[in-house]
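Sample intake sheet
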Amino acid sequence: MFLMSKIKAEIIKYSKMLNSTKLSALRSGNISVRYKDGFLITPSGKKYSSLKNKDIVFVSSEGRFDKKKGIPSSEWQFHQDVYKNKKEAKAIIHAHSTNATAVSTHKRGIPAFHYMVALAGGHDIKCAKYATFGTRELSKNILKALKGRKACLISNHGQIAFETNLSKAFELAEEVENLSLQYITSLKLGKPKILSVKEMKKVLSKAKNYKRG
């Protein structure tokens, strides 16, 4: 129980940071952490500023949860599917961050205009096709966009990032948002130069040993 309580407190900490860093406003977006045979996730419809440990919901790997103890985020299905298909995923951040969402509304991902795109795991950041939130169709689209990657945009919706812990997942989501802003800015100047796949392979190789302080 101590471990569960500690994880819930960490989820609340980063949920509030979604607001304080302006990565997501009010109650938009959601956060989860893998736990035992399932995951702990933010609840549906509650402002992050008012979250308590008792509000964080446990969902089993089969998608079961106790309604008496709370209703999980309406997006819990794609968290479930990411954990099932990405064994390395231990924590997930989903945000409606301004710039990532803006890029996603054009149904476009982020190409290799900057080498830091590699931090998401591939030579570009894909954009998952649109589907209604909270549906299995959206999960399938997200998994496709996450193939070989740790983050993607979601068309007309936002972004998702996963990592081996919550701190790293949050940082990756911040990186995606920053890259989105830089990409939008570069487009204002014209068509940016895109790094070659050959160069990005070199960057990806170096990125594996990149230590973030």
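Comment: The domain at 2-207 is CATH 3.40.225.10 (L-fuculose-1-phosphate Aldolase). The chain has a mean pLDDT of 94.
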